[in-house]
């Protein structure tokens, strides 16, 4: 599969006074899964809908290997999208896909193929109204796959999935990218997609805050020390010298930006009884939150 390079260049979208997306630029590369991450209202959906020609941007453009969505001769063969799904509850999963097959330029037989690919073959004849949230997510993905695209654009695909569903979705997009496809997916939780994505693009308040391979986020994680003591009052007194320190519970304090040596020395000087002293890297979720909070 030859996935297109998805390039977002200077994308701006204004709704009246609201600048929903402000000069956003980034790329999603073939053979990789790019996570588009940001809190609610950050501008993710607006960006993805603009990519698919569903919203007219105020400025800028999104291209698939150099062509805008509207210039693609057979868009469904290039990019498959799973945005907010709108299903008719009275229709079966198969009928839902059959109404879309002509638009994607594929025969009806393709509907059963994609249902099998997402593990919905047995539910094909059931009404969508009776589907679980996880089954709807799978049906949304099946819809995206109808035209046998080389790129997938997925808005919050893990939303509402149970752990088994998340594992399944992760394996699916990883194998799609491993075959050369391009995947751009959004999420408001880094932890939800940490094991799925190769690259991360962080957006907050309509602006890009960070873009890099996921591995580079680790370099931004500052060290922190976890200190445990049965003497709650003494522990609180000691850590009050670090304004960022947090009590995780009554016997455990987390002190960002410190080393074990530093905290150990302070505890020793204060004659605090210590039951645990560990230095660790800040979690990636904390790094991500810091990036989005700094934007607030
Ligand atoms: N049709 C619209 N009219 C006016 N404002 C809008 C419209 N659509 C989105 N917005 C605003 O644009 C901003 C970005 O919204 P968007 O839905 O793109 O964010 P998001 O990152 O996808 O968030 P969520 O995860 O909550 O869907 C928000 O402030 C939102 O209120």
Descriptive account of the structure:
It comes from Demequina zhanjiangensis. InterPro entries: AAA+_ATPase, ABC_transporter-like_ATP-bd, ABC_transporter-like_CS, P-loop_NTPase. The chain is an alpha/beta fold. Helices cover 34% and strands 28% of the residues. It has eleven helices and 14 strands. It has helices spanning 44-51, 75-78, 93-104, 109-117, 133-145, 163-178, 190-193, 214-218, 232-239, 260-269, 284-294; strands at 6-15, 18-28, 33-37, 59-64, 67-68, 79-82, 151-154, 182-187, 199-204, 207-213, 223-228, 246-249, 252-256, 276-281. Strand 4 and strand 5 form a beta hairpin. Helix 3 crosses helix 4 (109-117) and helix 4 crosses helix 5. The two termini are 40 Å apart. The mean pLDDT is 93. The structure holds adenosine-5'-triphosphate (ATP). Residues 15, 18, 20, 38, 40-46, 188 line the site of adenosine-5'-triphosphate. Adenosine-5'-triphosphate (ATP) is lined by residues 15, 18, 20, 38, 40-46, 188.
Sheet with most strands: strand arrangement: 6-7-8-3-9-10
Number of domains: 2
Spell out the helices and strands N to C: EEEHEEHEHHHEHEHEEHEHEEHEH
Give the uncertain stretches in residue-range form. none
Radius of gyration: 23 Å
Q: What is the level 1 CATH name of the largest domain?
A: Alpha Beta
Mean pLDDT, nearest integer?
A: 93
Could you tell me the CATH topology label of the largest domain: Rossmann fold
Report the β-strand fraction as a percent range.
Answer: 25-35%
Strand count: 14
Main beta sheet: 6 strands, mixed
- CATH architecture label name of the largest domain: 3-Layer(aba) Sandwich
User: With helices defined by DSSP (H or I, 4 residues minimum), what is the helix count?
Assistant: 11
Q: How far do the termini sit from each other?
A: 40 Å
Output the CATH homologous superfamily of the largest domain: P-loop containing nucleotide triphosphate hydrolases
- Structural class, by secondary structure, is alpha/beta
Q: Can you tell me the overall shape?
A: elongated
Which small-molecule ligands are present, each listed once? adenosine-5'-triphosphate
Instruction: State the helical fraction.
Output: 25-40%
